Amino acid sequence: MISLPSLMLQSCAMCGTTLGDGSDPLTRSLSTSVLFMMSMPFLLFVSVAGWFVYRHRLSPEDGAGPTEASIRPIQEDASP
Amino acid sequence: MSRGSAAPKSFDTGELPRYGGGPPSARRPGVSNGRIAIVMLIVAETMLFTTLIGGYIVLRGSAGVWPPPGQPRLPLAVTWVNTGVLAVSCWSMSRAWRALGKKDARALYYSLLETSILGSTFLAIQGTEWVRLVSFGLTLSSGIYGATFYTLIGFHGAHVAAAVGWLLFVLLRFRGNRFSLGKAAMVDLCAIYWFFVCGVWAVLFPLVYLR
Prior knowledge:
The structure holds 2 protein chains of 2 kinds. By secondary structure, chain A is mainly α. Chain A has helices at about 5-10, 15-20, 25-60. By secondary structure, chain B is mostly helical. Chain B has a single domain (about 35-210), classed as Four Helix Bundle (Hemerythrin (Met), subunit A) (Up-down Bundle), CATH 1.20.120. Chain B starts with a helix and ends with a helix. The interface of A and B includes residues 34, 48, 54 and 62 of A.
């Protein structure tokens, strides 16, 4: 697991050339950082897309009901 | 007042909507425009913090000793208390969310007020500790340690300040104790952003303070 970031970054020619085999602290930390930053957009996309699909499946099919399942109008008519 | 009168008309043609015309889909979207907007904001802010954390990982990993010698130590005990304050604010905001669903105006108002007080307390304690750290010599320009600390925690503090400001605005709108669907959506979006800010602290605190 320690060498996984270095191993994965060998697919990038610039990273492999510049960083080398990844034995020094700078190379290891740079590899970890790049792996972390590149994984975040995918994690965000999967989370958001999954949430959208989940909410879409929860929505009523006949169009009736509140706009969102968790919000209901407190006062449906503004009486003076 | 019937539930059907507030509900939109349903279309029983069963046809799909046509571009440029035709009846809209009978199925109501599962996510409102407001929630889509707040999710987009949160995604952008998450990427901002991701880049900051990525830079912190590089700088901390490349340094031989962390924290560097001669630097003042961070106030761990006070920050643990501050973390507890933020955690309680999350709990009070979730109470406000539940009160919103139950249409309990009184509980909603006082829960939001409690959350704003706790958020302000977090900022006040954070600011006090920063003043002490500056007096001990840890500044933005004192070195990598100070620069990364103030950048990371400062960005989070700015987001907490914005969340508190938004919460105070929501509280002012609720002073009349009259609710509507629009105001309920405002509370919902503010709560989502509050939970995001608290979630970021749950990542930053162990990363920066605990070692």
